[in-house]
Specification:
alpha+beta; Heat Shock Protein 90; Ribosomal Protein S5, domain 2; Rossmann fold; nine-stranded mixed sheet; five-stranded mixed sheet; 19 strands
């Protein structure tokens, strides 16, 4: 099978890198499966680009896919892709020297203006490849470049300072990574274990992922598609899957942006507020992805705490992937994401309130306390949140609610403040002695029934330069 064997020493930094990866870079060993699948997907993406550019491809009819095989008797796991593959020189450059790891070399090319159509790729091999050594006694990489005139090669290492390369003429196009697992990590040779990892981290990878011959990733990453391309039923099915909810959502926001950050997002508002049902405080169920690879499940900080009821996904190409996909280390970036996402969601609710009031009130009835919590705690978004508040009033029919903006539009000449009255309900409000002076002056009074409303008004202070004043404290008198 093999020809002459070449023995090489890793570049000095590689051994240091391996120590970092194995001992401190990742907190969960299972991440190696995600990293190798991500690399395999990138390799397939590169080959697809070369196919469309008309380049000569070795074995052009082979399907682009990722195959994983587990053997719990032999304690092995093998991850194979039919992507771009590597030549002998690329093996040395990508796997033997950290300075030329695939991700760095590729991103450097992009920075220099090369391979522009390819710019969305992470890179075929980067630091993530070395995560295999967290669980491996030995790693073998069988690979053949897509270039028809290049033979295949095998790269072998135990991660201990050296690696070997052999020419392997019968190697098919693509890359196959064979991992002999350490005794302590033999659970990664179990099909059920690997299947759960794929579904957690890599379920939305573009290419089919076969595990022992069966396709695992059957759900499409619809958030990466244009809204016009996604059917209503697809939106609902995706929500049922990612939201673990059999009911349809009340609304959704599907949007993309290029500036100030590259974002693709799809978030939903569930039909029921679980906190209303006496269940403990909700936690975020918005998951953070980069190019369809999960970075952080139930990501904290993507949205403010008062939007913790949202469910969905946020995908950003701007995440710092040069070291690890496991933790969000750039808090400034997270703050930018938070601001863009929150502003866009509030705009969506505002548009809904004007164009589809029935849908808006279904959301408001379930989640108004969250919005009021935002007014009381979030100075940045307070003004936009205030636009969404709705109250009954002294001049409107029972169960008819009005916004602060609508109240101002109805204010008579001479009225300079927005008046409100705290009460336990409509009857109590209408029987309040404080209401008489306002009736006499034909001033409208908002009726506030929620205990948190007083706190909301205190924090808001004013709206569109009109002070918010309690009817009990208003300095008004009935004129003789």
């Amino acid at each position: 099978m093999s020809q002459k064997t070449e023995k090489h020493e890793f570049q000095a930094e590689i051994q240091q890198l391996l120590d970092i990866v194995i001992h401190s870079l990742y907190t969960d060993k299972e991440i190696f499966v995600r990293e190798l699948i991500s690399n395999a997907s990138d390799a397939c993406e590169k080959l697809r680009f070369h196919q469309t550019s008309g380049k000569s491809i070795h074995e052009p009819d082979v399907e682009l896919k990722i195959s994983i095989a587990t053997d719990d008797n032999a304690n092995t796991i093998t991850i194979t892709d039919t992507g771009i593959g590597m030549t002998r020189d690329e093996l040395v450059e990508n796997l033997g020297t950290i300075a030329h790891s695939g991700s760095k070399a590729f991103l450097k090319q992009i920075a220099e203006g090369k391979d522009k159509p390819d710019a969305n790729l992470i890179g075929q091999f980067g630091v993530g490849f070395y995560s295999a050594f967290m669980v491996a006694e030995e790693v073998k990489v069988y690979t053949r470049s897509f270039a028809s005139d290049k033979p295949g090669h095998t790269w072998i290492s135990q991660g201990a300072g050296t690696y070997e390369i052999e020419e392997t003429p019968d190697c098919p196009r693509g890359t196959r990574i064979f991992i002999k697992l350490k005794e302590d990590d033999k659970d990664f040779a179990q099909k059920t274990r690997v299947e759960s990892i794929i579904k957690q981290y890599s379920n939305f990878v573009t290419f089919p992922i076969e595990l022992n011959g069966e396709v695992v990733n059957k759900v499409s990453a619809i958030w990466t598609r244009s809204k016009s391309e996604v059917k209503e039923e697809e939106y609902k099915e995706f929500y049922h899957y990612i939201g673990h909810d059999h009911e349809d959502p009340l609304t959704r926001l599907h949007f993309s942006a290029d500036a100030p950050l590259a974002i693709q997002s799809l978030v939903y508002v569930p039909a029921k507020n679980m906190e209303n049902l006496g269940i403990s405080r909700s936690e975020s169920e918005v998951h953070l992805y980069c190019r369809k690879v999960l970075i952080q499940s139930k990501a904290e900080g993507l949205f403010p705490e008062w939007l913790r009821f949202l469910k969905g996904v946020v995908d950003s190409e701007d995440l710092p992937l040069n070291i690890s996909r496991e933790t969000m280390q750039d808090s400034a970036l997270m703050q930018k994401l938070n601001k863009v996402l929150t502003t866009r969601f509030l705009k969506h609710l505002d548009e809904l309130s004007r164009k589809d009031s029935e849908s808006f009130y279904k959301i408001y009835d379930q989640y108004h306390k969250f919005l009021k919590e935002g007014v009381a705690t979030d100075f940045t978004h307070r003004d936009n949140l205030a636009k969404l508040l709705r109250f009954e009033s002294s001049t409107q029919d029972k169960d008819t609610r009005t916004s602060l903006k609508e109240y101002i539009e109805r204010m008579p000449e001479g009225q300079n403040e927005i008046y409100f009255l705290l009460a336990s309900g409509r009857d109590a409000a209408e029987q309040s002695p404080y209401l008489e002076v306002f009736k006499a002056k034909k001033y409208e009074v908002l009726f506030l029934y929620d205990p948190i409303d007083e706190v909301v008004m205190d924090h808001l202070g004013q709206f569109e330069e009109k002070s918010l004043t309690s009817a009990e404290k208003a300095d008004l008198k009935i004129e003789d």
